[in-house]
Amino acid sequence: MATYDIEVVTQDGASVHIQCAEDEDVITAGLRQEVILMASCREGGCATCKADCTNGDYEMGRVSVQALPPDEEEEGVVLLCRCYPRSDMTVEVPYTSERISYTTVDREFSAEIISITPIASNAVQLVLRRSRKDDGSTHAAIFEPGQFFDIEIPGTDIWRSFSPCSLPNDNGDFEFLIRVLPDGKFSNFMKNDAKPGMLVNVRGSSGNFYLHNNGLQPRYFVAGGTGLSPVMSMLRQMHDRGDPNEARLYYGVNKQEEVFYADEIAALAKKMPNLTAQICVWHAEEGWTGAKGNAVEILKSDLEASGAKPDMYLCGPPGMVDATNQMCDNLGIPRDNVCSEKFLASGSSGE
After folding, report:
1. Which residues, 6+ apart, have CB-to-CB distance to 82 below 8 Å?
2. I want to staple 90 with a disulfide (CB 3.0 to 4.6 A). Which of 55, 73, 196, 286 is the partner?
3. Do 49 and 37 form a contact (C-beta atoms < 8 A)?
4. How does strand 159-162 pair with strand 50-55?
5. Per-residue b/e over 292-322, b at no fewer than 16 CB within 10 Å?
């Protein structure tokens, strides 16, 4: 069986070579050689492993059109978890070399469920704490704000991906804001089986949704539902670092009963004079004093009025992310200024 050389080139010009057989995908080949590229679902559904193929031939396995639209596929964009080489290849990934790991050690760990708290009609707060070391000391919670972790449902081989709203810390604590689906596998686990003190397996961190250094460029955040979780972590990072960039948050839900974290948003905005936050309820009832309407439309109105061309950070359902991307195109905001994370119905980012 033929084996090909895959050169992976990062944003900062570094490269790593992976030997990949024609019957294995690039992500799997990397793992076999302890080169851990960014990936999540490994089923062609989440777009975390998206890359540009600049040289070589390949075959693509089955992928979601939401993760890899046909026009991008025609331009040579690939999902590395579904990319099978037919020659030596060069692929360019949208992150720097420091995002590539070279060992699986410490990427999988156990964590204790500390609490599960309902926070809205369709969302809960889940708090985990990494299990202690053999000597009783704590493991740190290490990740880049905006990234996600995979959590396994105990007794199964089912994993689901969630982003912390908390910051990295020495105590090993992770706080997640998680959407509850009517019959989601992870949702049923939380409703029926999960209890404080239970241990779960966790792996990560992963993902290329994080703050990018673009000088003093304003940063606008659009979060739909539990897409607020990684966005809150990023905003908290801005506060902790004292970033002077103007920041605006547009947090959208369908109904008032779905609003959560309002107090935390208000507290953060009070501490950050450079942050303006709007909670947007699409179908607002009488008495709602916040923004009324679709978050994307409210953002569009503000951008049209100001003429701003900010860096955009989008996290939420595919429809919201796609609509915002289209709006950015229409308003002349470069795609290089837009960083997004979709919560897909497959469960790869939130079921």
Report:
1. 25, 44, 60, 61, 62, 63
2. 55
3. yes
4. unpaired
5. eebbbebbbeebeeeeebbbbbbbbbbebbb
Per residue of the chain (351 residues), give pLDDT as tens: 799 999 999 999 999 999 999 999 999 999 888 898 988 777 888 788 999 999 999 999 999 888 899 999 999 999 999 999 999 999 999 888 887 877 655 678 999 999 999 999 899 999 999 998 888 888 889 888 998 999 999 999 899 989 999 999 999 999 999 999 888 899 999 999 999 999 999 988 887 788 888 889 999 999 999 999 999 999 999 999 999 999 999 999 999 999 999 999 999 999 999 999 999 999 988 888 888 999 999 999 999 999 889 999 999 988 888 899 889 999 999 888 898 887 765 444 334
Checking DSSP bridges between strand 247-253 and strand 219-224, what pairing results, if any? Answer: parallel
- φ, ψ for residue 295, nearest 5 deg: -60, -40
Taking the C-alpha atoms of residue 231 and residue 238, their distance in angstroms, rounded to an integer, is: 11
Angle at 312 between CA 295 and CA 60, to 5 degrees: 105
Distance of CA 275 to the CA centre of its chain: 21
Written as one letter, the residue type at 330 is: N
The length of the chain in residues reads 351
Rounded CA separation 343/351 (Å): 9
Q: How far apart are CA 248 and CA 121, in angstroms?
A: 26
Please give the structure tokens belonging to residue 248: 């605006």
In terms of DSSP bridges, do strands 199-206 and 108-120 run parallel, antiparallel, or are they unpaired? antiparallel
Using CA atoms of 51, 53, 57, 61 in order, give the dihedral in degrees to the nearest 10.
20
Which of 161, 137, 348, 165 shows the shortest CA–CA distance to 265? Answer: 165
**Nearest to residue 226, comparing CAs of 189, 188, 179, 273?**
179
* 3-class DSSP assignment, residue 25: coil
Retrieve residue 305's tokens. Answer: 């009025």
